Amino acid sequence: MVNVMDVREEEFINPGTRMCSGCAMALIYRIALKALGPKTIMTVPASCLTVLHGMQGFCTTKVSVLHTPFATTGASASGIVASLEEKGLADDICVVAFAGDGGTADIGIQALSGAVERGTNFIYACYDNEAYMNTGVQRSGSTPLGAFTATTPGGKIRAKKNMPKILEAHGIPYVGTANGSYPLDLYEKFQKAREIKGAKYIHILSACPPGWGYDPKDTIKIGKLANDTGFWPLYEIINGKFILSKDSKKNLDPSKRKPIEEYFNTQKRFNKISQKEIEVYRKYIDDLWNEIKNRIES
Q1: Tell me, what CATH number does 195's domain have?
Q2: Could you give the residue ranges of the DSSP H alpha helices within 176-272?
Q3: Within a domain: residue 234?
Q4: The domain containing residue 27 runs over which residues?
Q5: Rounded Cα–Cα distance for residues 177 and 125 (Å)
Q6: Phi-psi category of 136—alpha, beta or left, where left has phi over 0 and alpha has psi -120 to 50?
Q7: Which residues, listed in sequence order, are joined to residue 64 by a DSSP beta bridge?
Q8: What is the rounded distance in angstroms from the CA atom of residue 262 to the CA atom of residue 4?
Q9: How many structural domains compose the chain?
Q10: What's the CA gap between 275 and 278, in Å, rounded?
């Protein structure tokens, strides 16, 4: 297990980025780069991360970054890996695609699916803030049921897409979930994924103050509530074996889970959620944890 003394001291993001106050993605990216180290090439589509990197001709990171069109992140990563393999550098340099949920679950899913089906040796990380935050908070395939966005003013009427399960179905060697409120877990998963050959996928909950409607000081609290209510379990699937992460193990006991309303009440985007939708969430969480329990025991 990683402890705070194991975390690399070197910083790979220069101070003074253009991110919103309390942005979980900025913390996620900082921790991920520390875990990955200097021999890393990033490819990033249009997203909040593009904003963090800065205007054309300037980049806040100390690693190489290729900005790519929205739909092509997986294809971009595939091209970088192929080039490194041709030069004999693929074993020394880690290629990482870092995209938001819009560029992963929606616009970029075709290129992502193609890249992992080919067995491309890279990490694909999705920081999931559950909407298109960079362009005005429009709904994405990852927006949860009942959440307000600019294009779902009455609350989204469908559940979010389960991207970890979709990627697991591709038969890749590593799938993990993470949460910006658990940086040591996040750090360890990126380190582990870096050492595994083939396509790796990490799906990370990334709380967003302006898009979710909460005070920026509460980012860590809200991320932890997502875990403590059972809404966002932390786990790994390594070569088909399901491993529940330490910070989520308590949720196997239903009595240890906090009511889902505690999570919803912290965010204005759920102001219009109905009692019927809350009951749907309760059943969803119970079913989810029954499935997890069965996978652990099988």
Answers
A1: 3.40.50.970
A2: 183-195, 209-212, 219-228, 260-264
A3: yes
A4: 22-297
A5: 10
A6: left
A7: 41
A8: 29
A9: 1
A10: 5
Say if residues 17 and 203 touch (Cβ distance below 8 Å).
no
- The model's pLDDT over 66-77, given as tens digits with 9 standing for 90+, comes to 999 999 999 999
Q: Is 17 within the bounds of a domain?
A: no
H/E stretch holding 167: helix 163-168
Asked, for residue 229, whether it belongs to a domain, the answer is yes
- Kindly report the average pLDDT of the chain as a whole number: 96
Amino acid 285 reads: I
In a domain, 175, yes or no: yes
pLDDT tens-digit series, residues 90-122? 999 999 999 999 999 999 999 999 999 999 999
Give the pair of three-digit tokens for residue 82: 């192929």
Q: Which amino acid is at 236?
A: E
**Closest among 161, 180, 162, 159 to 273, alpha carbons compared:** 159
For the segment 169-198, what is each residue's pLDDT rounded down to a tens digit? 999 999 999 999 999 999 999 999 999 999
